[in-house]
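Here is one chain, start to finish.
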Amino acid sequence: MDHLALEKKLVRLVRRAAKIPLARDFSVEQKSSAADIVTSADYGVQSFLQRELVKLLPGSGFLCEEKNVNDAGRECVWVIDPIDGTTNFARGIDDYAISVALLRAGQPAVGAVYNPVKREMYSASAGAGARLNGRRIAVSDTPFGQGLLCTAMSLYRKEFAPVCFDIIAAAYGMCGDIRRFGSCATELCYLASGRCDLYFELRVFPWDYAAALLILKEAGGVLKGLHGAELTFDRPTVLVGANSEENYRKLEAVVGKYLKSVPYEETLG
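Its structure:
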């Protein structure tokens, strides 16, 4: 399998899928809570990508955010978040993205994260580097004390917000500043391209980070679970990331001070 050639085909498909949210013709439904919503555009993007990606790679499976699509036991699995940052999208805020990764034998092989409003296509294939609109990108060399930290407060499980605030407050006292854009995939790509330098979130799902994980690693960054755990794609996870191993260790020490273990036990159905 030529991963670089597959990346180029994936990029073209994701650009086609982006016509759906750009049309701005959608309805909104509530899922688990008032903060957890889905739009008809999410469903439309996911359906389009499932239909076209199986043509691109016959026999491949899917792990998708919407409609509980999970046949992740196959050799090749497409992990899709049709709109990461749905609340931003629904409210007309430009920070959202379509995120698609190909897992091959359980590891990201190809990934694309696309913001259709800003026309920013982040992509990568294993061993071939990461790109923004076709040009190679790399993480920054910004030291921790000047770094920008992207983060969130466990939106769908607000009982975990207090520990998030403790971690954020401690990190804020050590780094340059904090940003919250409302889209994990977007923020990790900003880390990959040097726009920010640090990342922490308490509870993130595989479709949020699968593509951006590959993009960030190919750009020279670090992304792991709590206490340095390697990331898997069968459950939500804590994410700790940085532009360097040194900065990762500093941020992980802050996170580990307040979070001794993952405070939830969940797997994907």
